[in-house]
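Aim 2 progress update. The chain analyzed this quarter is reproduced below.
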Amino acid sequence: MRTLARNWTLGKTDVNALVLAVHWRGVAVPLLFELLPHSGNSGTRTRLTLLDEALTLLDCCDVATIYADREFIGQAWIQGLAERGLPITVRLRVDASIDDLPAGEWLEGLQPDEKAMLIDNAVVYGLPMNVVLTRTDQGEPLTVASNATKGQHILKGYRKRWEIECLFRALKTKGFRLENTHMTLPAHVTRLLCLLTLAYVWSVLVGIAQETALKTHGRRAWSVVTLGLQSLVRASFRQVGASGDELLDLIQLWMPHQTIGAETVGY
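Predicted structure tokens:
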């Protein structure tokens, strides 16, 4: 499960959404969202309220970890998750305290021939966490703490957080172009986001089973959402004057009987 706040501006109006998504087959699927009445980061109370709503749908034991970026920090936030039985994997800022020392000072101890530093059971925001400290290929400090994952596996798991960035790209510039609607009234934006979420999920259901070429790094040449959306558009045009069987087959993907056996969903 991953959280992200995304803000864009129309005229002088900020449109800011806090989104909670789940990890399924390498794709971030929106579960809940909250429109924020301001620009910038969400507050701890808002985030915890959104998670409380999620826990009416899920059991905390079903959540492997919450992936969150650097804006989702603070002792009240981390402690609030612990009180709800929710583990977290979060990127830390350079001034975050790790065993009473800033992360930046720990990074200064990283030797030139060392790729990363692992710290087990360090105290971060009052909780014992495993921490990995390294630098990106661009030299930017990268520190990630987790109370759900062993130190050597933290970065591999944290990379899944990128899926929610891909989700927003699909909803906006690389897909449905949400920002081009010029809607700013919260009630209108909320309804539009609900409709786009359904369209996004349908595109995922259609595209997930399609084959596509792989790039040199092993990723798909075309995203699941792009493949699914293209198929839906083609099927919608073809059904005009035809039987519409292809489109009906795609509609059937929403039916529960299309799920073969139980699947693991990452939260």
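The radius of gyration is 21 Å. Residues 47 and 102 are 25 Å apart (CA to CA). These observations will guide the mutagenesis experiments scheduled for the next reporting period.
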